[in-house]
Amino acid sequence: MTETTAEAVAGPGANPRDEFGRALRDLRISVTDRCNFRCPYCMPEEIFDEAFPFQKRGEILRFEEIVRLARLFASLGVEKLRLTGGEPLLRAQLPRLIEELVGLDGIRDVALTTNAVLLPRHADALKAAGLHRVTISLDALDPEVFGRMSGGRGDPEQVFDGIAAAERASLTPIKINCVVQRATNEDQIVPLARRFHGTGHILRFIEYMDVGTTNSWDLSQVVPASEILERIGEAFAIEPVDPNYAGEVARRYRYSDGGGEIGIIASVSQPFCGGCTRARISADGKLFTCLFGSEGRDLREPLREGASDEALLERIAGTWLRRRDRYSEERAERAPARARRKVEMFQIGG
Ligand code: SAM
Ligand code: SF4
Ligand code: SF4
User: Considering the entire predicted model, what is its pTM?
Assistant: First the structure.
């Protein structure tokens, strides 16, 4: 696919499709690569210590740069935005950014993924700025297991305070994400299901993924969706629910007794690349078309060198048009090459 074709397709209202026919619908924006946790599966603290060169203030995109990019992405068909990180609530004045994003033409959903520790402080301002909803990460109810999975930072009570603040601010429906790791928190699956049964919050279990290169991922550490469902099924009667929309990442289930809904994100055992309509921008302005990408396409330099909207659109649409990513399907077909460098989860935010 040539830039010329990209240019032709990237007019206002155009909706580029990648080489496998997938449209561009969702954009995840990382607003910082810093975090107040050190979850070993994401930012192991032996590597991400005080000496680690996190991005400096001038290196990360300014709010007006993010808003400009989001507007351009919206003109290419993006309808949903998610702010993430690192820990997005570490970014100063985040509500100012949200206020601008929710007002963009074509954007109908703006969400935030957070470890929730700072939510009690910010929930009201986020709601007032127009944020629609939050996804909160919680890997364990047991404080000792939680401690191990957060790198010794925070405790479950802080997360529950964050959930309560999100409820009070009506940042709902709240989704709760739990990454399941063999021999680490698999015994937390049923207690978490019990805790959120009947609350109206949607608990989602995520298979542990081989994102990045620092977390020593191994297939033996993945608890497959089938086993997660089996464990929940031993405690509750559950039944599958149709997807909300084509390409929904989580497989949905509901408790037969009316206790609400859960989701399973089976990216390893049942990959969903065929319906993947998601792009990601790192905090320093690189465009990634896959969670397992190596090199992003730089958008910051053209932004700062005064590129026109047309030139930026051409760069974004051109990248999407050439997209052939299907990493998780390839992983399922054959073990991926070990040596390849991949972007880290905290850089693009999951
Ligand atoms: N700091 C925020 C948080 O933890 O919610 C937002 C960024 S975090 C990278 C986004 C999500 O990615 C979290 O729910 C986290 O549990 C998940 N995650 C990180 N590393 C992962 C991995 N290796 N496999 C599966 N999920 C992962
Ligand atoms: Fe931080 Fe989220 Fe990564 Fe944990 S998963 S280290 S909270 S960015
Ligand atoms: Fe999308 Fe890449 Fe994940 Fe496949 S592996 S679903 S292409 S992000």
Answer: 0.93
